[in-house]
Amino acid sequence: MTPQSIRIGGIWLMNELGIYSILNSSRDSKLLCLQRFVRLFAYGASTLILALYLASIEVSDARIGLFMSMTLWGDVVISFLLTLFADGLGRRRTLIMGAALMTASGVVFAISSNYWVLVAASILGVISPSGNEIGPFKAIEESTLSQLSPASIRSDIFAWYTLLGNAGTACGIIICGWLVQWFQSLKGWTPTRSYRVIFGLYAFLGLIKLGLSVTLSEKCEPEPEKQEYNQVTELNEVEIESLLSSDEDDEAAGTRSKRGSQPLPPTPSKKRSIWPSISVASRGILIKLCILFAFDSFASGLAPASFITYFFATKFSLPEGTIGTLFFITSIIAALSNLVASSISKRIGLLKTMVFTHLPSAIFLALIPLPSHAFPAMSFLVLRACTQNMDQAPRQAFLAAAVLPGERTAVMGVVNVVKTLSQSGGPVLTGWLAGTKRFWVAFLLAGALKAGYDLAMLKIFLGYRSREALDADGREQRRTSEDAA
Predict the structure, then answer these.
(1) What's the Cα-to-Cα distance from 121 to each of 107, 374, 422, rounded to whole Å?
(2) How far is CA 234 from the centre of its chain?
(3) Pair 45, 90: CB distance under 8 Å
(4) Most distant pair of Cα atoms in the chain: their distance
(5) Which of 65, 109, 170, 476 stands the most exposed, by the fewest C-beta atoms within 10 Å?
(6) What number of CA atoms fall less than 13 Å from residue 80's CA on the CB side?
(7) Are 51 and 64 in contact (CB under 8 A)?
(8) Where are the beta strands (DSSP E) in 176-307?
(9) Which of 128-142, 338-352, 359-373 is least confident?
(10) Which CA distances in Å does 374 have to 57, 83, 398?
(11) Per-residue CA distances from 282 to 147, 290, 297, 339, 408 (Å)
(12) CB-based burial of residue 340 (10 Å sphere; 0-12 exposed, 13-18 middle, 19+ buried)?
């Protein structure tokens, strides 16, 4: 193999993995990805011990499940309000507020044992029962990344955004697991005391995230309203026909034919409203996606990471260090798989990548509780991790391309609220099943629902073309018509 061929191969690999894309991205994009690493590090650390901490202060399994569900219900309200008005109030300001609340919740968990005080702190300050994203951060960051990234490299940026989040979760879990195990080996240290140290670390990480949010530039704020308006008026009859119902299409097409291709007069500038607007076409797509994401999220709520760690700790009596190492391995595998997903999506498309990678993970999830020994169950968990998160970056890019740029923050906020609300019903059911010695049913039901979601996504959206693709076609048609004239 010659040096030239090695160089060419290296360039090809860096392009495939999106390394050039993330290296050449803006400073704000890198800061947003770093914020996600810090935040998911904190989520991973707290997720490993959340159920164990509640059990150590004598909270029953049923009330642990209720705790997680109430946390998610409250998060729905907080997330909805913050993401709904984020563009009007300022994205950076909203991220700073969220980081401050995150810090406050860590402090409360570190000093209090009162059940209802902890519930209030987890709702207002964002404690993740699943180790995954909750709260307003994700929707705002994804909308900003979509604005900062050209469509050609957006899937690469989202892949690295997801990878760094998974890497943060992995580091948080393993460091937390071995720290807790080390603390408990010291004389006089109880499990409860060791868990509270981790929540103190959670508060410190919230402060780091707050500092990173302050350093973001003005470029993260929404684009001027005029640019959004121009993009909306570029839709022609073909695009409207693809996105609206037949009645709406006839009315819109008639209006367009009268208007012709003449540019519209400039609109007077006005003060941006804090109320977001979502076009009719985007609303139709949003409703379909919300229904499908609700099924997937309810399934995720049946088997959140906190309950999976609790399952391994209670059924197989695994220590925190071993569980932390196990989830570190699965998180690293899941993180690396995102780069593969980005490469696959360039070849077979976003939708097929979402479905064909997510379906195997649903099957392995259902198999986790069946073995009577720890090693086979751990193997199924690792196999699940191989494709568990490969759908995330394609799904983010799919959603970003499906709506207009000015709608992304509100749309992604609505999607995250629907997902969180749906997910909140799962822990209550799982807590009840765990308390009645039927923990295994939750895993089987979760796997079945996730598989159904994958097949429904494929059936409904196979052949769908994004708003960006339709916009490009419309511009090309206009150029062709102008050249012919």
Answers:
(1) 9, 34, 21
(2) 30
(3) no
(4) 87
(5) 476
(6) 12
(7) yes
(8) none
(9) 128-142
(10) 27, 42, 38
(11) 17, 12, 21, 29, 10
(12) middle
Q: Could you identify the residue written with the tokens 């076409």?
A: 281
pLDDT in tens, 102-141: 899 999 999 999 999 998 888 877 777 766 666 667 778 8
Cα angle: 335, vertex 339, 345; to 5 degrees: 130
Tens digits of per-residue pLDDT, 258-305? 444 455 555 444 444 444 567 777 788 888 888 999 999 899 889 888
The answer to whether 203 and 85 are in contact (CB under 8 A) is no
Burial (Cβ within 10 Å: 0-12, 13-18, ≥19) of residue 120? middle
Amino acid letter at 260?
A: G
Give the tens place of pLDDT for each residue, 60-97: 888 888 888 888 777 777 767 776 666 677 888 888 98
Cα–Cα distance measured from residue 55 to residue 51, given in angstroms and rounded to the nearest whole number? 6
Residues contacting residue 181 through CB under 8 Å, at least 6 positions apart: 319, 320, 321, 324
